[in-house]
Write a sequence for this structure.
C-alpha cells in the first residue's frame, strides 16, 4: 500500500513537470511588436514555475524516506506513528503546491470559480486547524481556536478552507519553536471577520509591497521554510470573489503578524458561483 502511494505521488510530480514543459514549448510565437515583452515574461514565468517544481521535491523526498522506514519494519510503534504523520503532512504540502499552481492558471484565464453554500464557518475552520495540530505539536507551537456561535451563512467552504490552510501554514513556517498561533472569529454588522495572529518573525518593511503578489515570498530568513509565493495571491482572489477583503498587519520584524479577512454575512440564497478575472495590478513580484 505504501509503495503504491509513493508511486502515485511520484507520478503526480512527474506529470506536473511534463505539463509545465509542454506549456513552455507549446506557446504560440508572439507578434513582432510583442517579442521583447513576451520573452521577458516567458523567462520570468519559466524560472518561477521551475522553482515551484523544485520545491515539490522536498515533500516527495520526505514521503520516500518515511515510506522506506515503514516498509523496512525496523522501527517501533512511536516512530512508525511519526513517519505516518510525515507522509500525511508532506502529501498535504505537495497537494497544496499543485493546487496553487493550477488555481493561479485559472485566475489568469478567468476560470477561477467559487460555489457558495450555507455553511458553519467555525466548523470549517476547526476541521482545517485539526489538520495542522500534529505539525504544530512537533514544532512546539500552541495552535489556539475557540469556536464562535455564528449562524450559518453563504460562502464557499472548500475555498475558504483553502484560505485557512494557506494562512495557518504561513504562520507555522514563520513562527519559531515555543510560539503561538491564534484564530478568532468576530461577527460584525454585515460581515464576519476572521483573524489569524502569530508571534513569529514578522514581515520586513521592504517586503510588505510583495504581499498578495504572485510569487511574492516575504522572507529571506534562513530560519523560515520557503514557499511557492502563491498562497497569499490565491487567498486574495478567493476572498475578493466572495466580496470580502483581506489584509495583513505586521508593525515590525520580530513581533509577529496578524492576517485579517472578511466575508459578507449572507443568509439568503444567491447565485452559487462567481468567476474571478485576473487582477492586472497583481503582477508577478520581482525575485526575493
Amino acid at each position: 500500500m505504501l509503495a503504491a502511494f509513493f508511486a502515485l505521488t511520484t507520478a503526480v510530480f512527474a506529470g506536473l513537470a511534463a505539463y509545465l514543459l509542454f506549456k513552455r514549448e507549446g506557446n504560440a510565437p508572439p507578434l513582432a511588436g510583442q517579442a521583447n515583452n513576451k520573452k521577458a515574461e516567458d523567462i520570468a514565468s519559466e524560472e518561477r514555475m521551475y522553482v515551484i517544481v523544485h520545491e515539490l521535491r522536498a515533500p516527495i523526498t520526505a514521503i520516500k524516506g518515511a515510506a522506506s522506514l515503514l516498509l523496512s519494519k525496523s522501527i517501533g510503534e512511536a516512530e512508525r506513528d511519526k513517519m505516518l504523520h510525515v507522509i500525511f503532512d508532506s502529501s498535504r504540502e505537495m497537494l497544496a503546491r499543485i493546487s496553487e499552481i493550477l488555481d493561479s492558471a485559472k485566475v489568469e484565464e478567468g476560470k477561477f470559480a467559487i460555489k457558495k453554500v450555507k455553511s458553519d464557518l467555525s466548523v470549517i475552520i476547526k476541521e482545517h486547524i485539526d489538520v495542522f495540530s500534529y505539525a504544530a505539536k512537533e514544532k512546539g507551537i500552541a495552535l489556539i481556536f475557540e469556536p464562535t456561535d455564528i449562524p450559518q451563512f453563504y460562502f464557499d467552504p472548500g475555498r475558504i478552507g483553502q484560505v485557512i490552510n494557506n494562512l495557518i501554514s504561513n504562520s507555522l513556517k514563520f513562527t519559531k519553536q515555543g510560539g503561538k498561533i491564534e484564530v478568532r472569529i468576530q461577527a460584525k454588522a454585515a460581515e464576519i471577520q476572521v483573524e489569524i495572529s502569530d508571534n513569529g518573525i514578522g514581515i520586513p518593511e521592504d517586503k510588505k509591497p510583495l504581499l498578495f503578489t504572485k510569487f511574492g515570498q516575504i522572507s529571506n530568513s534562513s530560519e523560515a521554510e520557503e514557499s511557492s509565493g502563491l498562497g497569499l495571491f490565491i487567498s486574495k482572489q478567493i476572498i475578493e470573489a466572495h466580496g470580502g477583503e483581506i489584509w495583513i498587519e505586521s508593525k515590525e520584524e520580530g513581533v509577529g503578524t496578524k492576517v485579517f479577512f472578511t466575508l459578507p454575512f449572507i443568509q439568503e440564497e444567491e447565485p452559487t458561483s462567481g468567476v474571478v478575472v485576473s487582477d492586472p495590478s497583481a503582477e508577478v513580484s520581482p525575485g526575493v
Notes: The chain has two domains: 2-109, 113-276. DSSP finds eight helices and nine strands in the chain.
